[in-house]
Amino acid sequence: MPRFFVSPTDSDIITISDDDANHIVSSLRMKQGEKLILCDGEGTDYHCKISSFESKNKVELTVCEKVKTQTELNIKITLFQALPKLNKMENIIQKSVELGVNTIVPFIPHRCVAKPDVKSSSGKHARYNKIAREAAMQSERGIVPNVEEICKYTDILQRFNDFNNVIFCYENDGIPLQKLINKNDMSIAVVIGNEGGFEESEVEQAKNAGAKVASLGRRILRCETASIFTISSILVLTDSI
Predict the structure, then answer these.
(1) Residue 12, number of CB atoms within 10 A of its CB
(2) Which CATH superfamily includes the segment(s) 3-68?
């Protein structure tokens, strides 16, 4: 069933406009009386039927039922991703949202080829959140995960205390991932490097900030593989599938 995000409301009548309305009319070619799902981005689904079309850019719907979204995980995962080259970040955002992460934080480590300026950072931030929203719609999420502004490595260290568990993935050392995950963890942070990897000083800083250094196996994974592998493994190890 088609799914769209809207702002939370107590009304029994909801109007969709602009791009989403145009998609309903022109792409999906939906008719009056057909049903779709709206989600408020806070975990509530509105099961609706189309009551009228005011134009190609405005569709009125009647709410038939409100239910709690059943697709969210029982744990909260935040991905701290070192900014990679080219458009790899876009793929990482898309796939990690599909898997269920709550927040994505791009950051710039010492070894970083991609160092956007202020203007390009603003454009990237908007595009990243658009990708997250589209992935959330496609995967029937109950929330739209937030992609935060690109920040410095030192900024993320200060946030480690906010989590039950911080998994710092490092290619040169670490404890097997399965030995670091506790099924009782309700909030997990995952830290993934980019093509250049982390410097030893950065690893020590992470340890001092409370992170657990994890090994992802004997093979070296690309950054876009490492993030998806780690999130998927956490879902299995915490019975969150």
Answers:
(1) 12
(2) Hypothetical PUA domain-like; domain 1 (2.40.240.20)
Give the separation between CA 65 and CA 36, rounded to whole angstroms: 11
pTM of the model: 0.90
What is the Cα–Cα distance from 95 to 227, expressed in whole angstroms?
9
Tokens 């994505």 sit at which residue? 104
Relative to beta strand 187-192, strand 165-169 is: parallel
- The domain segmentation of the chain, as residue ranges, is 3-68, 76-237
Q: How far apart are CA 197 and CA 184, in angstroms?
A: 30
Q: Kindly state the DSSP code that residue 61 receives in the 8-state scheme.
A: E
- 76-237: in CATH 3.40.1280.10: yes
pLDDT tens across 71-129, in order?
999 999 999 999 999 899 999 999 999 999 999 999 999 888 777 765 677 789 999 99
Rg of the chain on CA atoms, in Å: 20
* β-pairing verdict for 3-5 and 13-17: unpaired
Cα–Cα distance for residue pair 64/134, rounded to 1 Å? 24
